[in-house]
Structure prediction request, 2028 residues.
Amino acid sequence: MPKRIAAFGEVMMRLQVPGVELLSQSSVLNYSFSGTGVNIASALSRFGHAGYLVTRLPNGPLGDAAAAYLRKLGIGADFVQRGGSYLGMYFLENGFGVRPSRVTYTNRLESSFNTAPEGTYDWEGIAASVDAAHFCGITLAMNDGVRGHMLAMAQAVKKRGGAVVFDCNYRPSLWGERGYLAARPHYERMLELADIVLMNEKDAMLTLGMNTEKETREDRLKALIPAVADKFAIRVIAGTHRDIHADNSHSLRGFIYKGGQFAFSRRLTFSVHDRIGAGDAFASGIIHGELEGFPPERSVNFAAAAGMLAHTVAGDTPMASEAEVFRAIDSRIGDVER
Amino acid sequence: MPKRIAAFGEVMMRLQVPGVELLSQSSVLNYSFSGTGVNIASALSRFGHAGYLVTRLPNGPLGDAAAAYLRKLGIGADFVQRGGSYLGMYFLENGFGVRPSRVTYTNRLESSFNTAPEGTYDWEGIAASVDAAHFCGITLAMNDGVRGHMLAMAQAVKKRGGAVVFDCNYRPSLWGERGYLAARPHYERMLELADIVLMNEKDAMLTLGMNTEKETREDRLKALIPAVADKFAIRVIAGTHRDIHADNSHSLRGFIYKGGQFAFSRRLTFSVHDRIGAGDAFASGIIHGELEGFPPERSVNFAAAAGMLAHTVAGDTPMASEAEVFRAIDSRIGDVER
Amino acid sequence: MPKRIAAFGEVMMRLQVPGVELLSQSSVLNYSFSGTGVNIASALSRFGHAGYLVTRLPNGPLGDAAAAYLRKLGIGADFVQRGGSYLGMYFLENGFGVRPSRVTYTNRLESSFNTAPEGTYDWEGIAASVDAAHFCGITLAMNDGVRGHMLAMAQAVKKRGGAVVFDCNYRPSLWGERGYLAARPHYERMLELADIVLMNEKDAMLTLGMNTEKETREDRLKALIPAVADKFAIRVIAGTHRDIHADNSHSLRGFIYKGGQFAFSRRLTFSVHDRIGAGDAFASGIIHGELEGFPPERSVNFAAAAGMLAHTVAGDTPMASEAEVFRAIDSRIGDVER
Amino acid sequence: MPKRIAAFGEVMMRLQVPGVELLSQSSVLNYSFSGTGVNIASALSRFGHAGYLVTRLPNGPLGDAAAAYLRKLGIGADFVQRGGSYLGMYFLENGFGVRPSRVTYTNRLESSFNTAPEGTYDWEGIAASVDAAHFCGITLAMNDGVRGHMLAMAQAVKKRGGAVVFDCNYRPSLWGERGYLAARPHYERMLELADIVLMNEKDAMLTLGMNTEKETREDRLKALIPAVADKFAIRVIAGTHRDIHADNSHSLRGFIYKGGQFAFSRRLTFSVHDRIGAGDAFASGIIHGELEGFPPERSVNFAAAAGMLAHTVAGDTPMASEAEVFRAIDSRIGDVER
Amino acid sequence: MPKRIAAFGEVMMRLQVPGVELLSQSSVLNYSFSGTGVNIASALSRFGHAGYLVTRLPNGPLGDAAAAYLRKLGIGADFVQRGGSYLGMYFLENGFGVRPSRVTYTNRLESSFNTAPEGTYDWEGIAASVDAAHFCGITLAMNDGVRGHMLAMAQAVKKRGGAVVFDCNYRPSLWGERGYLAARPHYERMLELADIVLMNEKDAMLTLGMNTEKETREDRLKALIPAVADKFAIRVIAGTHRDIHADNSHSLRGFIYKGGQFAFSRRLTFSVHDRIGAGDAFASGIIHGELEGFPPERSVNFAAAAGMLAHTVAGDTPMASEAEVFRAIDSRIGDVER
Amino acid sequence: MPKRIAAFGEVMMRLQVPGVELLSQSSVLNYSFSGTGVNIASALSRFGHAGYLVTRLPNGPLGDAAAAYLRKLGIGADFVQRGGSYLGMYFLENGFGVRPSRVTYTNRLESSFNTAPEGTYDWEGIAASVDAAHFCGITLAMNDGVRGHMLAMAQAVKKRGGAVVFDCNYRPSLWGERGYLAARPHYERMLELADIVLMNEKDAMLTLGMNTEKETREDRLKALIPAVADKFAIRVIAGTHRDIHADNSHSLRGFIYKGGQFAFSRRLTFSVHDRIGAGDAFASGIIHGELEGFPPERSVNFAAAAGMLAHTVAGDTPMASEAEVFRAIDSRIGDVER
Prediction:
């Protein structure tokens, strides 16, 4: 049965140089609108749910364009507010091979979303309308106003019995000099509210400051994730391990920890067209599995395949339907379909 | 010495989303015109022959555009009729890595080609003008009218001493529920007329319903192809085995069966830009070899290299000259030529 | 107060050659999705109402792309059905100066919309949800099945007290040899149900077969429109007179006939970028005026300005907000706004 | 009845900056292939004749591209030779309003056409195959080798009874310092061979050095054209007077002088998209009229309308069919055709 | 003799939707970099002088792209500082006919230029290197820091004997609620330093609060400009009167007031491709005239023609050479140049 | 400390078919301007030096566009002359996989650069302004005039104490039938003047006619390079060995021979986007290392990484900064940077 999910997050304008030229070589940009919340709400709509975005867009042509784009993605607009002056933006120059992609941000702290005053959103109304809510660590890094919104919404949803999903998504460049130390209390507050958390052992060690004497990635994961689940009383923790190979292909292996048990997905290896947003596709797969009551192994394989497919489409936002994800779970590369 | 070849087949408008976007993401299409007959006639023109297409195009801007495109490809227009209302079309969304390409057809059964009434074509005039004629299993799947045209043309050409080429090219989606059973009698009728046939062991097993206890692809081929050649008195049978690798490269190995002997090409492995139409390039290579009197081994290596090169160009239609194919037979990847 | 309006109509894929090249010169198409119903529902959404489309789209990539495009335009998807196989399409080659634009249709009679079986739509549910419904003479020309849908929906809406809007929109090429005679009974049936009708004196004379001895366009209008309103008990009739000038600019003057009185808009003269869909913008303006209770003169000036602005945007579909239309009513061409 | 016409002339690669940017602003070029002979042969093919080009193209990718483009335009390739090293090229920057378009040539004197050695073409074979031949003053300006080819072909065609058409087309920049004096003997030699000549009174005065005391353009025309016709025994002389207006529209009025009588076309005024090649469209109209035996007035109106339409299409080469030209003769600007 | 001019001003990234689509319709932007100072420095470089820009750009890809673009325009980079975080941006949606163009700014107050701390620029070094300096009222509207830079640079240049040019360029949207009143003291301070001023009677009335009982534009000009020149001891005042016509063409008439005398240019009427930046082209023409010692009438005609040409090129920045401007002074629209 | 380097060489217009289409398939070209000297001067500017180009460009739009492009690349224009008529050009069709890229040249011998008369350049002024000069074997292949310029400049720089860099860069297609024999004396003359030489063992064997009995590439290198250094008294010799793999990736290993010692870079393996100009990036790295006094091992690793990165950017010209090259020396492929 389709569920209703609201993601709280900023809409960013993505301005991408086509091909592999640099900003100093080209004169053309392709633009779209994205953000973690956008990706989550859109992916879940594509899986058959009603995905809403809770955000604030400016009036005027840029806000209109963003709103139209959200609708095109199938995202419900009921909780999209208009007001403020600016839209966050980022410029993307595609890398090639050994040359990495580059992202350059404009001043997102002045955006409509990041300057939304108290009272902008109707938390009770939102909480009454949804089965689950999604939050992310990028938003948590913005400012006290936005963090206040996050807590208010998470508490309202929790009180109404909705599931709270939190993706740790720590971005070092956003937290300034004190970094993990500055972030820790904010993360802990969200983890206390969360039912489903996206993270891996690195988040436990760096953001939460937990320790283990294990040395391999997998051993650390197995040591720390149960400890996090215990400490914060989290029902489900899921995440991925990624490897990047010399030929630019990536490998992804998902895990889910639930009911005291780990389940792992197959290790998927694949060529990468657009890496941005693929983590959100994995998260959407986990949320879908939980909303639909999949057994953990099915959830994590679904999520990993959704994450893999998100690397193969243009733009930040996952485009695969549930059927396409299932087909990809056992897929081998095939001949053209006609 | 250049020969004259007429291919009978539909012209399709190919509408391709550029890059790797989906139809629901993009707003631009690149268009061209293709079809098995188009590919064969064009490829043979590029090898130095006079390639003609026997088809029917609508009047009006779409028909004009298709006709101009055929001329650009070097295809003789003497047997292109105008009439009817519509052009068959297909939309192509490029895949990437594990995500397959998607082809979506419009209603081709209403096309000018598929609604051509009896008397549209002058079979005697065509037969008197050509050394060989090419037909394909896709056309065979359309309707009784088109099948009638095929038989009439094949018979006329055969009577005049021209070579009849038939490419089995079975497409499951075109034959409906009864599938192979529905197709079999039509295939058998064409095989009885054919001098040169493109197929492999799968066609023998599935379309023709033949059996073998062999288990490998190659053993089955060696068991069944001679049986087909005997049963239908076919002078030359040729075809390929294709493997698709995890890194999206393909391998191709061609065979030719003639005079009771098999010859095989080198197994070629290569990156793929556009897979559609590559089978027609192989067929063109076999036809060219036969028309020029190449020894079988030379024919099959030429055909395999022609097929390989067709994967590296944009669009359905092979673009390589005879010299370029010969160069590719022993080619290794080289530095830029200047 | 915002109202809810449902337009019944086909979604067409518009495939436009960019610039002024012909299909036989170019290799690129820009695509979008439109149709009279699309234009009406989108324009009314932009004026602040909830605009719905009642239509049927195929499954698969083309249907998905059309559905995404409708959402982007702000059209409510509640009554969009999926099923059938094909989407109607048209190719547009832009004219220049004395060279007219050319439109080439594909076989729209096989479209999902035009082959929708009885029972496809839930007329009672739709009628219960809307304040008004819009129909158009293009749809009326399709086939008996679609005409049956139209009547069923118009009757259901009327029974529930909703307003029925009918745009005569006679297209000669769609009605075959018997033309107006074939169309007349179908038009009369719709006019009997209609509360608001879009037409002018030519429709009265040609489609309805009415006569007048008047000689000028305006005199004929004043003679015939009241007669139509009387005969079919129509509350509001509105329409335009268009003049096309030697420098490719157009002039438009709107009229509205209501309560036994005519009101006329200013005669607007303007440069034209894209003429297709401008009539729908005028109709939307009239509907908006009626829904909002504008006095007739305000309605017709609003509608004419909306129609004028629709000539200045790319694509079939009007993009102006209510505020932009009001600003255009007294607009003179101004300097850049910044 | 369709006729066969061979035009002798160089194929130029046209490299056009899209939009109105300058070469120092853009990074993109659209390319096509044109030339007076190309335009004439293509236009006459579109009018239903068999148009051939007599020219020489280099081997290699540029020559292949040019040859494919000629075929696309419907030009017969029987007399297209391959050899030499280079293709003539010109860069086109579109003007806007008061800013004129700019054309920059590459070194065309080294082109395959302009370096074709004696014996390149089979004049007897060509002359035996055609009803008429077209030559132009641009070609005459190249070098002695090309002028030798022109005379040889014109003489061969004349001897076989074919019609010789000569378009004076004087380009000051091509004749160097001595200008008209250098050109005169070459022009006179062509005029002695010509049956149909395209020119106006300016050519008579400047190139041929003839005098008149008349002062208006029309009086001079009426005085000088009959004198030219007499002196060189020319059957038909035709040409145009062009006016360029402040709003960038052009007016064109064609004349034809035949059998001692002048006939004039309507004066046509129209917006201009691409002015290059429009003179060739007028010439093609005159040739078509003569080949079809039109009365002079019909010929000149047809030619003027063909010339007008050529200003409204992209590229140098006329694209109108005979039916479209006839429709344009009495055309007013109309609404979109659908 | 070429002179050295430094313009002080912000570099803005211009992000323009191609064609006439809206931001909510398109997915592509063309970008360039401009600003009043950019336009002035570039135009004067094209007239043969050494044009420098005094500005501050961020490090990173956007700053690199802006710097490369300035170099491409021929602007000297000696006084371009790097630092700060952001670049000012504006989005441009082209209007069509009655629909005006729309400009949407991002938050330019956070730009590298507008946050440059004291000590960023070496005023003495700059003043020692230049013959003239250019400032503009847009910059004056930013903040106290930037206004401080302006005054410091103007004073340094004046002390060294360089000419100070000030373009009033009042933009209502930048001055907030108190508008002209807030701006007046800042304007007066710049006028006291200025040798050459760009303005017209509206600036005198609105920004400076001066009065006249005259009623026509021209009478007011003649009454107020001498008064301004007297009050602030300004050597040269120049400006334009613009009219916008119903067919979207513009008329421009320039004036110059110098030595107690007015001189006026011809009234130029022309089609408009890109209006932004055309005022800077006029200013550049006046500066060029003054630097070269043109008589006033020659200066003002040169400036008006430069302004006119700037409307006919793509982008904000004038592209005409001195020779092209002189040619345009008496130009009529001509045929293509080849 | 930044140094001043002047590269002597031709500017070519590069006209590239976008994507992987052939010239006979596409209608669009991307253009830029490059050449060995352009690449060297631009790369060294990006490393912090002042890079100048000594060349000659035509007047007119193509020369203006080339000059603007050089400025955009950061190349000093002080020694760029204007004159002559033409610009050298080449067309580039991208290969794919087994299909190689194709380069087609226009007639560059008529270019402004290759027809520059004696006295075009001020050798003394140039030599007085620079610390080093760069020359290349491609230029050496042009004609006696250009070779005379090369020698004059190299001698002037050497006399003033500047370093002379010579890149052997032998292109077989440029030297005609006598090939290496024709080239040898010209190469020897340049080697006698050179301080730093780019070459490998193949140049020694083929161009210089030296012999060795060694069989492997590396053994031959170690045998011949010291011999060349001795014979011509060359301070530094550097170069690369390249391998091209079946999956189209390349491997590059650089060497440097200085003070009687060889140093080798790591063997770098990487995907290739645009191979043209990568050799110039390596050369720029070696020059940078020498100008900065890097130890040989650091120089050769820097140069190899610079060469590797140049394969990953669009266009001929290296775009990496010194910091980016250093980062790439130990780089592994990483995740997106944000």
